[in-house]
Amino acid sequence: MQCNVRRANAHDLDSLFALLEQFATSFKSERASFERCVGHLLADDSAWLAVAECDGEIVGYCLGFDHYALYANGRVSWVEEITVKEGLRRRGIGRALMTAFEAWAQLRDSKLVALATRRAAPFYRALGYEESAVYFRKMVTTQTYA
What we know:
Elements: E1 3-7, H1 13-23, H2 31-43, E2 47-54, E3 57-69, E4 74-84, H3 93-107, E5 110-115, H4 121-126
Parallel strand pairs: 4-5
Antiparallel strand pairs: 1-2, 2-3, 3-4
């Protein structure tokens, strides 16, 4: 299987959405919202959205960002989402996506790459990542004021 990682583009929407539907657990995937988000991400210099393409098929994607952080004396990079199509995992595709993201982060002069995970800690440990913090979240709802 011949695979390469490349930046995503507008022609990848159908394949990306299919992967998102397999990946999303906390939210229901909505096509119109997805397309709006991708449009913003493709135009955002601090966003990195890439796909893994194997034998002409998009089989994975990675979305990450970088930003300045005072504690790091510069930029840090954060992997927000990464997934590989079920049945093609454990073939180096996720590793290739992470390696490409790390290279982008290094080019942007990031001091570290970080992420949160619930199910893939062994994968990240195998890539040299170490546990550093606990992840908290709070759902934010839109409030209407009279």
